[in-house]
Automatic annotation (TrEMBL):
Residues 26-36 have a biased composition (Low complexity). Keywords: DNA-binding, Transcription, Transcription regulation. The keyword DNA-binding applies. Residues 258-356 form the HTH araC/xylS-type domain. Residues 1-36 are annotated as: Disordered. This is Helix-turn-helix domain-containing protein. It holds the Pfam family HTH_18. GO terms for molecular function: DNA-binding transcription factor activity; sequence-specific DNA binding. SUPFAM superfamilies: Homeodomain-like, RmlC-like cupins.
């Protein structure tokens, strides 16, 4: 049998025939004003609007230099600034948020907002420290007071119009040196000179703040390029050795090198060798030499000699020790050899150098 199939469904159980009618589109349910129900009930929401941040500017609110006395100690429970501290001379240590940092000439530390700090100067050759305090974001329209809270009871502690901001250097300490960040060191020295002449004008405070942000931004890029992280750098947590000698690059110092630097600092009078320092580091002499070359651009013994000469300068400046006594305390068995090396490094023999320093 051929031909078109009839438009008849199979017979129902009752014997009647079910005829299929053409399908009709359902009538949409109406909403208000004739809108489909879905559109009537679901209306687009206005986006949440975040109020714009108030206009703000960077402000450099304090800069000074402090010569510590032998063994002098003091500290502050909470400093609300992005602080740069620079060891210009002498030595000692700072504990920042409980972590020990050795400070020798040339070391620069960038400290996080809200840090806790305690200083301890060396008994011999105590340090001269520069401190510069930056408020990265100071809101317009609020009093610009040249003061920085150093404890929670200060009248400006926790005020909402002063806060941290760019550049993003993280919440830990960043260590570098004056040689690795010369612009930062020069600007810090200039800021101290400006503040020595009296409280700067508001225009100067703003200009110095802008320049400091520029220098710290450059430091952040330098660190990011070294670590391969373009978003910024969190700082070397737990670094406790001494970076000195004016030859360090900005970097995260490996643990084995950190141990050696701390060991050398406390054993300059002893006989030191590459093999002995490698044993302290827990690596081979070749590995240690590569670490020194990468991070300090010096050989291990070249760096030791730098520290011995720096220690000798401090002893000659601050003690009545004879040249022979200074030589022994700095690890030189022969006073004549010490005098020759000292003259090569400073341009004057020890006795002449001491006379000149005492006249300054």
């Amino acid at each position: 049998m051929t031909g078109p199939l009839p438009d008849v469904a199979p017979r129902a159980a009752s014997g009647t025939t079910a005829v299929t009618e053409p399908a009709r589109a359902p009538k949409p349910l109406g909403g208000p004003l004739g809108q489909p129900l879905g559109q009537a009930l679901v209306q687009p929401l206005d986006p949440v609007r975040t109020p714009p941040a108030p206009p703000a500017f960077p402000a450099l609110l304090q800069a000074n230099a402090v010569q510590f006395g032998p063994g002098e100690r003091f500290g502050f429970p909470r400093v609300e600034s992005r602080m740069v501290t620079w060891c210009r001379a002498g030595r000692g240590e700072a504990r920042v948020n409980g972590v020990r940092w050795s400070l020798v000439p040339g070391v620069l530390l960038v400290l996080p907002w809200g840090h806790r700090i305690h200083y301890t100067a060396a008994e011999v050759d105590p340090f001269l420290l520069v401190g510069v305090h930056l408020v990265p974001r100071h809101d317009e329209g609020f009093p610009l007071e040249p003061t920085v809270p150093h404890d929670p009871n200060h009248r400006y502690a926790g005020c909402r119009w002063r806060r941290d901001g760019e550049p993003d250097l993280g919440t830990q300490v960043v260590a570098t040196t004056a040689d690795a960040a010369p612009g930062l060191a020069q600007l810090s020295a200039y800021a101290v000179e400006v503040w020595r002449r009296g409280t700067p004008s508001e225009a100067s405070i703003r200009a110095l703040g802008t320049m400091m942000v520029d220098e710290l931004t450059g430091l952040a890029y330098q660190l990011a390029a070294r670590t391969g992280d373009q978003a910024g750098y969190a700082g070397p947590a737990g670094f406790g050795g001494g970076v000195g000698g004016g030859s360090s690059d900005t970097c995260v110092v490996p643990d084995e090198l950190r141990r050696v630097l701390a060991y050398v600092e406390h054993h300059l009078a002893d006989r030191l060798t590459v093999a002995g320092l490698a044993e302290v580091a827990g690596c081979s002499g070749a590995t240690l030499s590569r670490r020194f070359d990468t991070y300090l651009h010096r050989s291990p013994m070249g760096w030791v000699l730098d520290q011995r000469i720096e220690r000798a300068r401090g002893l000659l400046r601050t003690t009545p020790l004879t040249v022979a006594q200074v030589a022994r305390r700095c690890g030189f068995a022969d006073a004549n050899y010490f005098s020759r090396i000292f003259r090569d490094r400073t341009g004057r023999p020890p006795t002449a150098w001491r006379r000149r320093e005492r006249l300054l």
